[in-house]
Amino acid sequence: AYPSSGEPPCVVVGAGLAGSLMAIYMAQRGHSVEVFEARPDMRVRQVDGGRSINLALSTRGLTALAGVGLEEQVREMCIPMRGRMIHPVEGEPHLQPYGRADQFINSISRQGLNELLMTTAEAHEQVRFHFEKPCVDVDLDEGVAHFEDRISRERIAREASLVIGADGAYSAVRQRLQRSGRYNYEQAYLTHGYKELSIPAGPAGEFLMEKNALHIWPRHDFMLIALPNLDATFTVTLFMAFEGEGASFDALKTRAEVDAFFRREFPDAHALMPTLTDDFFENPTGSLVTIRCSPYHHGDRVMILGDAAHAVVPFYGQGMNAAFEDCTVFNALLDREGDDFGRAVAAFTEERKADADAIGHLALYNYYEMRSAVASPYFVFRKRIERVLHRFFPAWWIPLYSMVTFSTMPYAEARARAARQDRMLTVGLIAAVVLMGLMMLALLVALSR
Ligand code: FAD
């Protein structure tokens, strides 16, 4: 049944974004692969309640997709977003570009991308998918993964040459690692959650807001964002506290309260959301978790990647990109180690941990930046100076957002470099203010003589 070598297959747990991409990488290396997914096949049965959910795809994700020859196909599914379109409560929205004119991030359908990855993986004869078969246990030392058929309740055991846990933030494979000795694990929830809503297309099938932007309504303690879809709709997400004194999900109990809240806080969006109150009460309120753990492997035969290893809050638009980059990094380590899984998985933990921690921190900070800082004139002024510095000294000065989003520089390096740049900019601005003050003083003295 396994054409490559008679070895047991690689077993991938989770046919989400990272699991499906990793299955392609392993198949292209000549390994046989079995992928086990807890949910039904999304190409056949509706998932996520049929809502269209989109994600921002950027350089790291595109690089990983290019590694298996999918970049061109994926680009056709994308809508470029060139900057943040900031919507104040009153007045016209204005665009803050993300970078140079040729730099943009991409809005893509989660389901469309996941389906493409599964179908591409399945086109390799040595790849098999099994749906509705969640992983229930892993024998870490023997490399045997156990699954349960959701319909027949039958138990299935699969010996693997490598078990790859790509089963998301609530990973069963990681939970098994947590029960092994001296395992480091940390999870932290934000006090804020999110709810997905929508803006439909116009009567002639047109976009009702600027198509090529990520729209943000920053309101300090909460925010609304919207990303475009190919069918001219927008997927809108409200991020807000679950409960508390100010605005919160808890405080919005009736249709009238939701309607009044949107009318007051996001008047231009409210005017474009005819199904607002239905969406609000039909769609679940999601929580936002950061997960840090180590190591990402056990012995020679078990590893985790993607959200299973390092779930991050979504505010840098990097969770999927980092999960895809895990695949690129692991593939390069397999190249280096001649497909010795034991050495490659140990090297993966070694190489990836600091970078995963760094993007976890950056993503948390970016929530403050998106919901509050973007509305401050000082923030906009600093960003402008950074863009000018980058234009004149492109190798010496790179804004943090560009390092994270438009490069494959390791996240930890980007974070350290940005901290240095930040200090330099602050010192430079203080020096400029002091210098200007001294010049004014000298002028006043000269005039008074
Ligand atoms: P998942 O996509 O969660 O896939 C895990 C898969 O494993 C699923 O199919 C699940 O059904 C399956 N599974 C779970 N348990 C089991 C089990 N026991 N056995 C078998 N299968 C199992 N990232 C970006 O890069 N850009 C964005 O713009 C962005 N926006 C986001 C917005 C929101 C609101 C949220 C919540 C996240 C966002 N992310 C974004 C993050 C991104 O969604 C995740 O980082 C990404 O989905 C991780 O991929 P994954 O394959 O590791 O996990």
TrEMBL record:
The keyword Membrane applies. One of its GO terms (molecular function) is monooxygenase activity. SUPFAM superfamilies: FAD/NAD(P)-binding domain (SSF51905). Keywords: FAD, Flavoprotein, Membrane, Monooxygenase, NADP, Oxidoreductase, Pyridine nucleotide biosynthesis, Transmembrane, Transmembrane helix. Its EC number is 1.14.13.9. The chain crosses the membrane at residues 392-412, 424-447. It catalyses: L-kynurenine + NADPH + O2 + H(+) = 3-hydroxy-L-kynurenine + NADP(+) + H2O. Pathway: Cofactor biosynthesis; NAD(+) biosynthesis; quinolinate from L-kynurenine: step 1/3. Gene3D superfamilies: FAD/NAD(P)-binding domain. It is an enzyme of class 1 (oxidoreductase). InterPro entries: FAD-bd (IPR002938), FAD/NAD-bd_sf (IPR036188), Kynurenine_monooxygenase (IPR027545). Residues 10-328 form the FAD-binding domain. Its cofactor is FAD. Belongs to the aromatic-ring hydroxylase family. KMO subfamily. Catalyzes the hydroxylation of L-kynurenine (L-Kyn) to form 3-hydroxy-L-kynurenine (L-3OHKyn). Required for synthesis of quinolinic acid. This is Kynurenine 3-monooxygenase. The lineage of its organism: Bacteria, Deltaproteobacteria, Bradymonadales, Lujinxingiaceae, Lujinxingia. The gene is kmo.
